[in-house]
């Protein structure tokens, strides 16, 4: 039975248990809920890059930082659809489109995004969007166009959040997540490890996510990509075992959610990624670039999956996440690294 009332103390106990016990528990729960050797492959494309007015400390697309990322307009429809077709050919079942916006504004650009959602959905791919804050009517429009999932990360614990972002609140993010849920779109919501937070903040994020009356269907766990020019460029490296513990704890607290390896895989060894899969990660972003930061080459991922005797989930229709219309309680919320870059916003 899914639980929504984990205490921080209980979750920390899970996180800190002896590593073999943690891995055994996570892998056992994983196999009760998912095929043991299958990875969902997702592709993420930045459809509108740079110039974001938010100040997320990890994000190279923030206009507050000098990172060399230029502001661009929304990509032409034919360019996006060509990338979606290629992603499908390469084995992706989900195509996520990210825009570096604070919030969606009604008008020409949102109309264009709606056309993109319709076009990608028509290709038979699960469509995910990450466009910033979203009103209830905008969420309904996305749903009607075929949007399956919406990514809006909470990034970290409620207590640490203000150390990372000042231009919008945790509650803003929770409000967007509620609008997404109410529209019947599945929720993709996770965070970032390596922003100077304590273990209790990492685990606190997971407790927050698991407290929602419906767990996010996707939980992206990013490892900070340290980008020059951002305030977090000099942060300490994340201990690989700590990261694997985070994945395992996510799997245990949210047994039926896809746990997704997202940003930071360029810095992960094959061994570390393999441990993440054993810990219950069952999805990853593929493609040379994740929004604006580098990601492992498709060949490298394919070789790793083969070497491990695993396989990509290749039938989107038979494995789609269940959409639930349950409401999110007023205390939780948003996507893949905040804005499109490590995670999405
Ligand atoms: S993470 Fe998203 S919201 Fe934050 S600055 Fe980057 S693009 Fe903007």
Please write out the topology.
Layout: H1 8-16, H2 19-33, E1 38-48, H3 77-89, E2 94-99, H4 108-122, E3 126-130, H5 136-145, E4 149-151, H6 170-182, E5 186-188, E6 191-193, H7 199-210, E7 218-223, H8 240-253, E8 258-261, H9 270-278, E9 283-286, E10 289-290, E11 293-294, H10 298-307, E12 311-312, H11 316-319
Parallel strand pairs: 1-2, 1-9, 1-12, 2-3, 3-4, 4-5, 6-7, 7-8, 8-9
Antiparallel strand pairs: 10-11
Helix pairs in contact: 1-7, 1-8, 2-8, 3-4, 5-6, 7-8, 8-9
Iron/sulfur cluster is lined by residues 52, 54, 56, 59, 61-62, 100, 132, 338-341, 345.
Brief descriptors of the model:
345 residues; TIM Barrel; two-stranded antiparallel ribbon; 11 helices; globular; binds iron/sulfur cluster
Please give a structural write-up.
With 345 residues, this protein is α/β, with parallel strands linked by helices. The chain has a single domain (8-319), classed as Aldolase class I (TIM Barrel), CATH 3.20.20.70. It is 36% helix and 15% strand. It contains eleven helices and twelve strands. The chain has helices at 8-16, 19-33, 77-89, 108-122, 136-145, 170-182, 199-210, 240-253, 270-278, 298-307, 316-319; strands at residues 38-48, 94-99, 126-130, 149-151, 186-188, 191-193, 218-223, 258-261, 283-286, 289-290, 293-294, 311-312. Strands 1, 2, 3, 4, 5, 6, 7, 8, 9 and 12 form a ten-stranded parallel beta sheet that branches. Helix 3 links the parallel strand 1 (38-48) and strand 2. Helix 1 (8-16) packs across helix 8. It is globular and about 55 Å long. The two termini are 30 Å apart.
């Amino acid at each position: 039975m899914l639980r929504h009332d984990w205490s921080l103390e209980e979750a920390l106990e899970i996180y800190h248990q002896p590593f073999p016990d943690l891995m055994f528990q996570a892998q056992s729960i994983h196999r009760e809920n998912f095929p043991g050797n299958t990875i969902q492959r997702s592709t993420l494309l930045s459809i509108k890059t740079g110039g974001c007015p938010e100040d997320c400390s990890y994000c190279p697309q923030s206009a507050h930082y000098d990172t060399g990322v230029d502001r661009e307009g929304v990509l032409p429809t034919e360019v996006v659809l060509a990338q979606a077709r290629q992603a499908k050919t390469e084995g992706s079942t989900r195509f996520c489109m990210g825009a570096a916006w604070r919030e969606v504004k009604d008008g020409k650009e949102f109309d264009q995004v709606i056309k993109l959602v319709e076009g990608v959905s028509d290709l038979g791919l699960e469509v995910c969007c990450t466009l910033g804050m979203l009103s209830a009517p905008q969420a309904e429009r996305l749903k009607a166009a075929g949007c399956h999932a919406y990514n809006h990360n909470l990034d970290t614990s409620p207590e640490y959040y203000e150390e990372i972002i000042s231009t919008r609140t945790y509650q803003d993010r929770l409000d967007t997540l509620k609008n997404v849920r109410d529209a019947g779109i599945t929720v993709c919501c996770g965070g970032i490890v390596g922003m100077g937070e304590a273990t209790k903040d990492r685990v606190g994020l997971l407790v927050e996510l698991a407290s929602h009356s419906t767990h996010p269907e996707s939980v992206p766990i990013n490892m900070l990509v340290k980008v020059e020019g951002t305030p977090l460029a000099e942060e300490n490296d994340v201990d690989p075992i700590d990261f694997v513990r985070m994945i395992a704890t996510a799997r245990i607290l949210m047994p039926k959610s896809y746990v997704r390896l997202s940003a930071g895989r360029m810095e992960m060894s094959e061994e570390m990624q393999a441990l993440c899969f054993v810990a219950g990660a069952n999805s990853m972003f593929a493609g040379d670039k994740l929004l604006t930061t580098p990601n492992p080459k498709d060949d490298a991922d394919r070789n790793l999956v083969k070497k491990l005797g695993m396989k990509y989930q290749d039938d989107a229709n038979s494995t789609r996440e269940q959409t639930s219309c349950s409401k999110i309680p007023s205390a939780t919320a948003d996507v893949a690294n905040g804005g499109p870059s490590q995670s999405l916003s």
